[in-house]
Amino acid sequence: MPDRNDDSLGEGPLHGIVVIDLSTTLPGAQATQFLADAGADVILVEPPEGNRLRANPGWPGLLRGKRSITLDLHDDTDRMTLDGLLARADVAVTTMRPAAAQRLGFTAEQLAARYPSLVTALITGWGTHGPWADRKGYEALILAKSGVLHSKHQLTTGPDPAYVTTPYASFAAAQAAVHGILAALLEREESGLGQVVESDLVTGVGAYDPYNWFYELVLGRFPDAFQPMGAAFDQQGRPQTKLLYAMLIAATADGTWLQFAQTAPRLMKAWLDELGLSAELTDPKWDGFPMLPTPELRFEWWNKMISKVGQRTLTEWDEAFARNPDVFGEQFRAPDEALDHPQLVHEGRVVVVDDPDLGPVRQPSTLVHAGGRPLSRIRRAPQLGEHTRELRRLAAGEAASHRGLSDSVGRPGRSGHPLTGVTVLELGVMYAGPYGATLLADLGARVIKVEPLDGDLIRGIMAFPEAGGAKALQGKESIAIDLRTPEGLRILRDLVGQVDVVLQCYRAGVAARIGVDEASLKAVNPDLVYVNAPGYGIDGPYGSKPAYAPSIGAASGVSATDAQVVGRPTGDRDQLLDQARKLYAGGTVPAVQSDGMAALGVASALLLGIYAKRRGIELTDIAATMLGTSTQALIAHNTSYAGRPAQPRVDADFRGISALYRMYPASDGWLFLAAPAEREWAPLVAGLGDPGDLADERFATSRARAANDDALAEVLAKVFATRTKAEWEADLTAQDVGCVAVTQEPAERHMQGDEFYDAGYAVDAVSPIFDEHRRLAPLNRFSRSTTRPEAGCTLGQHTDALLRGLGYDEARIAALRDAQVVR
To answer: Alpha carbon of 72 to those of 107, 115, 120, 771: distances in Å?
Structure first.
């Protein structure tokens, strides 16, 4: 299938929605890119010198599909033009810090008074209400303070934190903004009023972890309940977890890295048979496998498996995968290479857009597909100020009333949840799809989870019962049904008749095989919104393949981006094992991985489908895949064209990308300095006190500092080593310089501690399993609407109540339970 734009594609489900994009950072660009991809008219407001994102190598993908107008917001005439545009808009998106928003009139109260039907998304680094609200919101500062850089520490040797360039926090905040915007637009259909919706990078990054939050919670409460897993490798690089065998990373004989994912016992047996290692396990030496007792034995077996993989070429392994459906290994790809993935090519998830200056620009298509195609034809990124003249005329014209809203503007808005009245039926297991539905539950949707009688696999994935599934089950109702029985399928179809949305997360062909595909369920409920959230796709060459977070991280380029392992494996054995360890840390760290990334995309797809339906637009075969979403998250890395500037590379020690954007050791730990802009140099020097060597002519200008980057890092390292990390954070923050003490404990533990709880990033909930506890706060905050941060549910907790709601009496329910149709 060609990777060209399709001229026959429609206008997209958001056609007619006008968005004013005032953002200047990556999360704002990715949020409005999603809206433009869905057909919205996105007006990019740029300063005369241009949006600073134009310096990002991926700018043609980030700014695509938008119209550009240059305005100086400090000029009265230009401010009147902006006012005219906002008066005609449905949505505005900004990435201003709270003080700037106040100064420019972007508070909730000011916006409601001037533009009552406008939905405004404020995307910030730290939020607008906590103790860190006014700080610089650089991505690395959030990853450092939340604990993510510590969680990635096994990219290096030893316990020190490691810097990564995958924009986890930015992508999460962007998708959270999309969720808030679409939810507020849905609420506006009822109230006629807009509102301000906030998302931030801190809470957003907490959405990536699918289960470890509750693992850390249990360890905190019951430290002797079970043995902590610890890091994947010990200080000598030897395995410490049995997962390394199931999630083996190894290179083929001809130099291709493969990520295996043989997580179930059946799959592990098939894997060992394929490697010819099953017979060896009869040797008493390996008693207890996969829980081998000593680090020496674990290292020997790990090395043995890597050697076995290395005896075959990639072609030979592909033949094995075709012959043996219980064994599969995904290739590791760099972000550019990911767009050659056969599944993405099959689905048309790769497009080439012609740019008059750059020539052909290759990039991912829309995150959400519908009808087996992208949502709309991808349009090129605008030249700076390209549409200024026409947009000034638009701003000066007569403002049109928002369609369907003019009669209701001004009446009191609903103060409840923005998704009140929306019911989602969830079909699927594990994390990516189900956690996407959880995010809608936080916004007030009713989510009914259909589980098999023994429950979703996530409930028993950890040694402590229910800990593995608690986060993905928050806010849901559980009904346990055996869908293999005619009675069970009849119950499901009765439920379908009462819901608005069905979310299915099975591999290709499974939904049709059990009778829960889109056609079958729309025959029951023609008004249904049906969303597919598979790993690879609803058809195609990889549609039936198992999709796990590490596999998708390998396929999409996320793992290679974090690990900085590109090209062919080294021939040196020790170096090869070191690269395998880095790739493992790149894609399997629970704090930030492709399950959470995909879940954010699933929530966006669900809300887009619901809002399109509310607008009278019918979308079929709506699909948001794990692989498609993960490549979208890396659009700044995988957008390619002739002469594209190189992406900044992390240094060999994983400290950062430059002297002014990296970690430094303080007297008691690590700090992260983020002061890359020219205007930040003078405040940095002032915050450091005596400039000393910093007054050297080698550092007098930004060009000189770039040319002498290594020398500058040495000077700064000597200065920072003299005081504690907390002291430096306080002093440099007072100068409005980005600097934080690097947290040196797991992110999932740190984010539920007092510091983050008091700042509002975690909130209280009450669970039937965990009693009162702290959970991640909802990803959005609204100026009028409210969110609903609830706890998880037990298996079948709501079976009886849901059956009674369908008209089943107690005797019939008891009979169904005796027949093992329900639990």
So the answer is: 20, 21, 20, 53
